[in-house]
Amino acid sequence: QTITQKKTTNNQPRLDLLEVFCGPQSQLTHQSQRLGYRAERMSILQGDLQTRSGRETLFSKLVLQRPKNVWFSPSCGPWSGFSCLNGSRSVEAWDELQQTRMKFLEQVALGVVILRHQRQHGRHMHWEQPRGSLMFKLPYMQEVRYYMLAVDVDLCSAGDLRDPTNGLPIRKTLTILSTSLNLINGLTGLRCPGQSVHPQHQV
After folding, report:
1. Torsions phi, psi of 202, nearest 5?
2. 29 — phi, psi (to 5°)?
3. Do the beta carbons of residue 175 and residue 136 sit within 8 Å?
4. Residue 162: what pLDDT?
């Protein structure tokens, strides 16, 4: 029975949130559930999205559970400033970085497909990366940047993120793209006021 055939007899409750490429204990899903929303994760425990079977599981959820919001957090490692620094150390390291990036382009392509699906059905998508991620500069992201708005937030202000060893706030900055103007407006201004001490190692 295909996904399309299943849709005609679908009795599954609709999700408020589907979190994709998250950890098994991600706070976004946890806190949404605490507030009474229907939220589920698509972490490695539900399926490896680098495989066909994992993507089939994801698209079954998209079609059958019709999430109002998809929060998409693809791997940032290959696109970070640290990866560029490490890759510049030798020709071999640079070649290895490019090979890794080619592999992880599958995640970018998956995000574009999810965006198209959500827009087609009048639903929202939100795409998260650390600020400065080269992912957003890829030519494949042109469609994403066209249809989504962007906002930067500091997690010391947006989520009270703190170093577990000394309790100091961590100023980790995220760039969030979203199809929801309401979300963008709600996140605007959540930047570090610069009045607190932060650990020296943070980016």
Report:
1. -75, 160
2. -65, -45
3. yes
4. 52
Three-state helix/strand/coil letters over 55-101:
HHHHHHHHHHHCCCEEEECCCCHHHCHHHHHHHCCCHHHHHHHHHHH
Scan for tokens 């610069």, then name that residue: 194
CB–CB of 140/105 below 8 Å?
yes
Sheet holding 69-72, edge to edge: 39-42, 17-20, 69-72, 124-130, 173-178, 149-154
Confidence of residue 115 (pLDDT cuts 50, 70, 90): very high
Name residues whose C-beta falls within 8 Å of residue 51's C-beta, 6 or more positions apart in sequence.
none
For residue 185, report the phi and psi dihedrals to the nearest 5 degrees.
-65, -40
pLDDT band at 42 (very low <50, low <70, confident <90, very high): very high
CB 115 within 8 A of CB 147: yes
Q: Tens of pLDDT along 64-85?
A: 999 999 999 999 888 887 777 7
d(CA 101, CA 88): 15
